[in-house]
Amino acid sequence: MEREQPSFVNRKHLSDAKMLASANRRAGKIRYEGISYYRMGVLHDNLKEYKKAIGQYKKFLAICKRTNDTVGEALAYNCIAVDFQMMGGANNLEKSIEYHTKHRDIADVAGKFTSYSNLGIAYQEMGDLDQAVHNHQNALRHAIHISSLEGESVACANLGVAGAAHGEISTARACAERHLQLAASMHDYKSEADAHRQLGQLAVADGDFDFAREEFNQALEISQSDVTGKAETKRARFALGLAKGNEKLEAHMRQIAEAMQ
Predict the structure, then answer these.
(1) Which of 65, 76, 113, 253 could form a disulfide with 142 if both were Cys (CB 3.0 to 4.6 A apart)?
(2) Does residue 78 contact residue 114 with C-beta atoms inside 8 Å?
(3) Residues 230-256: b if buried by 16+ CB within 10 A, e if exposed
(4) C-alpha dihedral over 101, 107, 111, 115, to 10 degrees?
(5) CA neighbor of 174 nearest in space, from 191, 149, 157
């Protein structure tokens, strides 16, 4: 298990990244300068300094636009959107939606899944359930398109929650059942337990207390059997804050470095 680095380590790395950005700017190495800004944004995120992180990601975004780096541009939009969402509040959520939409418009299919998922969560936080359901439906469609069982599972879970809040109980139940099926097939015990709990809550809403009790018992049994903590599974890759961990990033940064050698 990775340990979170102490704040003084992140502060030291921030100082190093700042000097590196300055050196690359003086040397005219604009893409390396941009990477330094991105790293500073990540370090500010580690310190939960989201406003400062946004400032660095915007510098990274500006350089990506100047160099026609569309992969980096999509990454920057996503990072900015996520940080506005992390800060919360109506104004920040509106900004988050603005940048998630920009990410959606430029991203590849996998990136569109991420942006639609985050848009659904943001709209639900703002109380716009129609838009929340619409975006989670699009996330589900893109997850199916790329044959991602993990993505489909997450989208079904999100759509089920949004559907229930919207009063669409039959839709919510269908999504929870599919979420359960996918979670069980992937041995994702945490998600499996979550799906049983969601089905139990929907049964309570319908007044079917016997079925609700069965679902809650199954959720409890699964949770108790997962004593090793292995339920922290691939599903977490699609969690809000981890959207920044774009698995293409390292390959993308290597390509930039190789091109400049």
Answers:
(1) 113
(2) yes
(3) ebebebbebebeebbebeeeeeebeeb
(4) 0
(5) 157
